[in-house]
Amino acid sequence: MNGIRDKNVLVTGGSSGIGQAIAVRFGLEGANVAINYRKGEEEAEATHAQIYAAIEECGRQIETAGARHILVQADVAKEDDIRTMMETTVRELGGLDILINNAGIQSAADSHELTVEQYDRVMTVNARGAFLCAREAIRHFLAERKPGVIINMSSVHQLIPKPRFLSYAMSKGAMQNLTRSLALEYAGRGIRVNGVGPGATVTPMNQAWIDDPEKRAQVEGHIPLGRAGTAEEMAAVTVFLCSDEAAYITGQTLFVDGGLTLFPDFRSAWSSE
Ligand code: NAD
User: Fold this and answer.
1) Rounded CA gap, 194 and 101, in Å?
2) What does CATH list as the number for 8-259?
3) Could you read off the pLDDT of 77-87 as tens digits, one per residue?
4) Which part of the chain is the Ketoreductase domain (predicted)?
5) Is 151 in the pocket of ligand 1 (CB under 6 A)?
């Protein structure tokens, strides 16, 4: 896609799922990619090993395509980590042109049982983490007096309520105005900010249903196009929004959801005939 080759890109949560596919796609398009991974003391050893294994796999694929890339550690819940990640990326790649705010988590609980810790964790990673990464990226774009692009990986739950996932739905709702407010504030300085809103996508986040035919059929039964999306489909739209092909798009969230945000229950008219 036009305008991606030789750009310097940072992808948060780049070690698995959608973030990994985005990092690989940018690499294939000739961008230099900083792949963020989390190394938090709260993580179990097994999770840790899987993250590194995924990063290695991701890095190898990018290398094969000939793009330069680095691995950068940061827990996006931690401001100091984010600052260090940005400094490392700028130093190692020679600058930053594109930030992909992809890192995200969710946790399930009846809302009346949701603890402050559970609530804060999701909001801190998903909403505050995206804000802090965007702030650091914008500071760099402004200091260098150069254009930049930010993509916020939102969700259909930016629009669709998600019972038992209150903080997740709230964090994705917040992303809408993170995207819109930053887009308006910095449009005059050549910075574009957009969102991508995936529907149900086959990634580790959805381990609970992707390998269970019954649960998967239940999920996919809600989707007008009749199937879950792939990480690669999310990556294609993300890279498009960062490219020169999308130079006139800012402040928008593009839902990539097989029609999930089209009120699927209204497929057949039910109230007017
Ligand atoms: P995933 O679990 O595979 O990826 C999430 C990534 O975020 C992982 O690489 C993880 O290590 C990273 N991460 C989590 N907490 C972090 C932290 N504190 N610091 C740094 N990195 C951290 O799931 P995914 O489906 O690829 O999710 C990617 C994004 O897409 C998320 O923002 C998610 O909300 C969004 N999304 C996913 C779906 C879906 O159906 N899979 C749907 C809508 C939106």
Assistant:
1) 10
2) 3.40.50.720
3) 999 999 999 99
4) 7-199
5) no
